User: Which sequence fits this backbone?
């Protein structure tokens, strides 16, 4: 069983330049995680390119099971990235689906 973890974030800022910088920082931070967290099996990060969409950044990642996902969530490097993300977003949606 693989567990697919999908998360989307809405940035709080209304300034386009600031939003672009924040999205790039989120993307870079998330993309640094597979090198240090062995539980990650697949990891893709995207920044929204169409203004009609509600969310700004998306993460699609795969883990062997729920236990592997939980180890990822509490990993110190994930916590650092997540702390920054929480500081700049106004909304978040997530889905965890078996696949």
Assistant:
């Amino acid at each position: 069983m693989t567990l697919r973890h999908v998360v989307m974030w809405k940035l709080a800022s209304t300034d386009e330049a600031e939003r672009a910088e924040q999205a790039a920082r989120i993307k870079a931070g998330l993309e640094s995680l597979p090198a240090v967290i062995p539980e990650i099996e697949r990891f893709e990060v995207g920044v929204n390119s169409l203004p009609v969409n509600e969310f700004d950044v998306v993460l699609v990642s795969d883990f062997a099971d729920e236990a592997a996902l939980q180890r990822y969530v509490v990993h110190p490097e994930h916590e650092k990235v997540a702390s920054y993300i929480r500081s700049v977003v106004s909304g978040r949606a997530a889905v965890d689906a078996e696949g």
